[in-house]
Every structure is written in C-alpha cells, then in structure tokens.
Design brief:
The structure is a homodimer.
Chain A (H helix, E strand, L loop, with lengths): L10 E5 L5 E7 L2 E4 L13 H6 L1 H16 L5 E2 L4 E3 L7 E4 L3 H11 L16 E3 L5 E3 L4 E2 L2 E5 L2 E4 L3 E2 L2 E7 L3 E2 L6 H4 E8 L2 E2 H7 L13 E3 L4 E2 L5 E2 L18 E2 L1 E7 L2 E4 L10 H8 L5 E2 L4 E3 L14 H4 L7 E2 L5 E2 L7 E9 L5 E12 L4
Parallel strand pairs in A: 6-24, 8-17, 9-28
Antiparallel strand pairs in A: 1-2, 1-5, 2-3, 3-4, 6-7, 10-11, 12-16, 13-15, 13-24, 14-23, 15-17, 15-18, 19-20, 21-22, 21-27, 25-26, 27-28
Amino acid sequence: MSLYGIENLPYGVFSGDDGTRRIGVRLGSGVVDLSPLGGLFAASTLNPLLAAGPPAWAAARAQATAVVAAGSSATPLDQVRLHLPFEVADYTDFYSSEQHALNAGRILRPQSPGLASSWRRLPIGYHGRSATVVVSETPVERPSGQLADGVFGASQRLDIEAEVGFVVGVPGRRVPTTGFADHVFGVVLLNDWSARDIQAFEYRPLGPFLGKSFATSISPWVVPLEALAPIPAPPQDPSPHDYLLPPGPGFDLRLTVDWNDTRVSSPPFAGMYWTAAQQLAHLTSNGASVRTGDLYASGTVSGPGRDQVGSFLELTWNGAEPVKLADGTTRGFLLDGDRVTIGGTAIGAAGVEIGLGSVSGTIRPATG
Amino acid sequence: MSLYGIENLPYGVFSGDDGTRRIGVRLGSGVVDLSPLGGLFAASTLNPLLAAGPPAWAAARAQATAVVAAGSSATPLDQVRLHLPFEVADYTDFYSSEQHALNAGRILRPQSPGLASSWRRLPIGYHGRSATVVVSETPVERPSGQLADGVFGASQRLDIEAEVGFVVGVPGRRVPTTGFADHVFGVVLLNDWSARDIQAFEYRPLGPFLGKSFATSISPWVVPLEALAPIPAPPQDPSPHDYLLPPGPGFDLRLTVDWNDTRVSSPPFAGMYWTAAQQLAHLTSNGASVRTGDLYASGTVSGPGRDQVGSFLELTWNGAEPVKLADGTTRGFLLDGDRVTIGGTAIGAAGVEIGLGSVSGTIRPATG
C-alpha cells in the first residue's frame, strides 16, 4: 500500500517542461495537477490556500480527494521539478526535545551541562533567516566563517538537525493552544543545517546566527493537519503556565535520517516535550503576530537512544565517536559530497500509515 | 534653514483622505507627492525603487530634486498618514556599540562582565521578527510573558534601544565591504523595544526572542545614502579578518532620545565599532543571501557618557539610578502612557545639516 494514497494527499508546487508553477497533490510516485480546478489552486504558491482558513482547507481537500478518486492521472515525479511550496514569512526555530537539549548542553557546555532554568517553563526558540529556507534537493554549500578566535575558513563541523516544521495559514495574535488547528495548515520535514564551529564562536550572548543562516531545507510536500491523527502529548512537569494549557495534540511522526546510503537514526517526534500548539501560543503570547507563510520548527528531534538522535553532533558525540557508514568509511561531521535525507511517516487520520515526504541535500565544497 | 530641504529628500509612503498609498519625499514639514512621475514611484511601497539599484536610485533622486526645485507644493504632514515605507523581508539586529555591549555585560552578567571573546572579531547579531516591524506612531502594547521562574505577567522592565537601521535594496550574497553602497539604499531610525525581564529569563542559550519580538518601530522616512556624508570609521583592534576589510564608511549621525518631554540622551553613531558595511559583509559571508527589503540594525547606539546611552537599562543602570523627567517624576523603565521619540540629524553630503526624521511610540497597557 502506498504511503501517498488518497488518505494523504500532501500539497506541493511543481513545474513541467513549460516552467509554469502549479499546485498539485502527491499520489504514489506522481503528482496530480490541481490547477485546472482554479480558485485557490490557480496560484504559483500555496499561500492563497494557506490564508483561506479551515473551512476552505476542508473544501480543498474534498476537491483534491474527488479528483483523485475520479482517477485523474498523475505525472511521474521524475518528470517534474518541485519548488518551495510557499513563500516563507517569518521563520522561527524551537528547541523542544528534552533529550536534544540535554545532549547539546553536555557536549557544548560541559561546565554547566543541565537544562537552562527556563527550559521546562517555556519552549525556547529563536528567529532564523527566511531568505535561505530552500526546498529539498537544493545543494548546500559548505559555509565559511570564523571557526575560533583568529581562524577564518570553511566549517569543519557541518551538521544537520532533523526537525518538523509547522506551516501557518491564518494570521493571528495571542493564539491559544486550542486555536492551533485554526491557524496551522500542515507540516513539512525540515533540516536546519548547522555549522557547529561557526555557531560555537558567535552565539554568546545573542544566539545562533551565521552558524544556521546559510541554509534551511524543507520537504516539498506540506501534509495537511487533517491527514494526521493526533495523539496525547507527553506529561509536563512542572505544569506549564495557563497560557500554555491545555497542551494540545502530539503527533506520532517517525523520522529517519539517512547519511549517504546508511540509515543512521530514527528520531521519534512523539516524545517532544513541548507541543506545536504550545510553541505557537508561546510565540504569540507577547502580542507578536503570525502571518500566512510563517514557518516554525520543532527543534531537533532526538529520542533517548543513540540511534534516535536528530543531529550528528549527538550521533558522533561531537566527532569523538565517529559512525561507520555502509561503504566502510567513517564520519564525524559532513564531508563534501555527502548527502543527507530526512524522511518520515505517521499513522494518518484514516488509520493507515502515510508518508511525510523527505528532505534531502548534498554538500558542495566551500567557495567563500 | 530646514533639516528637510532639497539636500535631504528622504522617501516615504503616505496616504491622504482617499487612503491610497503614494510615494513622496519629505520637504520641510510636508510631503511632495512623487506618484505622478510614474515608473518606480507608481507603487504603494518603496520596494520597486529599492530593487532597482544605484543608477536608478540616482535617477530617482534627480527626478525628485527637479520636482522640488520646480516648486511643487508639499502637503502638510498633519494632513497625511505615514505608512511603513517598505515591506520588510528579513530583519536582523546587530550589537556593534562597544560601550553598549560593555554596559549590558556589566548590568546583566556581573559574574562575567567583559565582552564575549568574539565581540572584537565579528559583528555579533541575531535575527528578529519581520512581522512586527511597525512604523513610527504605532502604539506599543506592553508585552506579557514569563518574567522569572514561575512568574507570568506584564513586563515590569520595558525598555528602548535607539538604533540606526539600514535598508537593503539590491539582493546579494557575499557582499564585500566595498559593495555596501551597491546594495544598501538608505537609513532609518529604529527603536528595538525590549522587555528586559522577559529577555533575561528566556535568552539562554538561543538569544532574545519574545523579549524583542512584540514590536520594532522605524521612522517613516528612508534617508538615501546619497544624502549622507561618509566619515572615517573608528580604528579597530585587533585588525579584522580580510572579509571585513576595508571597513567601509562611518556616518556622523547624531541621535536624540526624548522620554516624554525630556531629552534624556544624545547617542553618537559616529563611535560605533563595527560599520554598516562590515555588518552586511559578515551577514552574507557564510553564503546567506540578502533580499530587497531586508532591514538590518546597528545595535543600540551608546556613547561613553551617561547622557549618550541608547537604552534605559543603561541610563538608569537597570532601574537602580532612576532619571528625573521635566515634570518632576522619576523613571526606571517605561510606564504605561509614556512616549519615546528617537530623532537624529547628520551632516549631509551637501555639507548642510539634514534631519533623519524620528521614530515615536507610546506605551499602552498590557492586555495579554
């Protein structure tokens, strides 16, 4: 059974030989063109659909389902080009896996390895660079920068972060956790490429900047929330402040990380401490607005096992414990030419397993 | 002599009774409508003009100058509404005043009060929230948030940061410092409103987030670089890496900060350690792109004197040394109803003093 059957139907933007960008849904290993339906589908990005809100989202999904049920032909994916599915407004990144935060603290701040005092009180996050959010398969050039005091050069500790991104449709301020599904359209897989050496030298006291801003890759398919089955979120201790309650749904998304041809990790999203509804409520709790096309990411998804971590920093313990790939070579961090694919599946709302697409990137040598 | 004579002519977007947004230049206390000229002026934001690049900028300025020289009538500013002059793509904020960084370190991190080891090596910065960049006179609602462990409420330490913002016109990657004027169109005054209690609780390890994202105000007038006279930038020790050299121009911008009816500070921009050209070169040194409408800010402008600091954190030494206002009341941080205006002047390219406009905001009580 296909992970991209009629129960899934994630949306994307594709073009064929004429270069015109069209909206479609993925079906099996092909894409069904929805642009002939007109209306919200007669656009070159998903933004008009995102802005239209839940009743329109339900109607669009019903239309897409009817088109597929009627047996519309799908164009094979190898005959189309996939584009960034929406124009990104603000991009925000959280840090909501307790295991990742603990691992990162142990590795990067061994003199004070625990969680920050605020970590269990609020979903810590920061703003990232919207300009460099790119679609899967966009090559990633190794960044150069200041790697240590007095040292400028190509990053020697180039890493990934396997995350889930949430795509905001309807603008809002002070969105309660119960308003999550009124504002968020769907999910993508996201790779927050990270140059650990650049990041380590620059991040005090204002946080990551050039260590992250060179590229953030997302999957070309936006899986609508309607296709996903919510699950209970993990318990939280201490109980969060009122504005973060109720916690809202969790999601049983099962990620995979492939380093070249080797599956090196399978991060479980279900264990994330802070929910996407809490992240959105927190993000807007100070009166800040969200807009159509805002993208906010979960933070690196790491489970308790070494084979469940979402970064190579953790997988190789900052390079000290290299991993062996299927071809017999070993890795601490990314080499030029390496390719990383983050994939994922979920049990969908219809009770069958569905695919979340994948986000891939290949490292090109530094030129800067 | 007017600060807004023919030597200045900053651009803005205004509307009259019919609500239509038009591009104009400020002349004296009025605005001259440029929309009848058509072309790049026939838009509702400055973005098309920003994107057009230096030759078009020079031509536009020549056109505007000719219109003003011909005696076109100006509509009084009290008869128009001023709007955000351009659509903000990515917003980035730096931290490039040594005096401010030293003061902030002493106040906020007394256990390790010096500059971070990277501070003199690179212009430290972070990404902010584009959605909440607002035009002068937009009311600023006091944000609520987590002020300390277990405490949620309205910020009690609401502050300003007096800064200069640089508006990017032409997209680019790896912009050398010598390319500054090929990409940057002009400057605005900027107030990076900051809730110090929210910021202090949240900022480790990923930097400021909700303590800043509720509002960032900019002046309605973009002063083109062509109107400003460059000056030599201050010396830097140690000498920066090659990608940050030559340092590019400094600017002798003289800021003022009025708290209600009292001038509390006059921050001198000329002393900023890192130049705007270095900030842009650093921002793009990792391969990250800048786009039309990107806004990057200098960081709080603070000089060595207590009457030259760009934040109330420094002015009142975190509230410990309140300032007395002209009405006899005292302040540590902002009270509801308080109004702050950041103004500025410069010696222009024509050798006469020109105005940089002003950015004002009034604090409304918290509702969240």
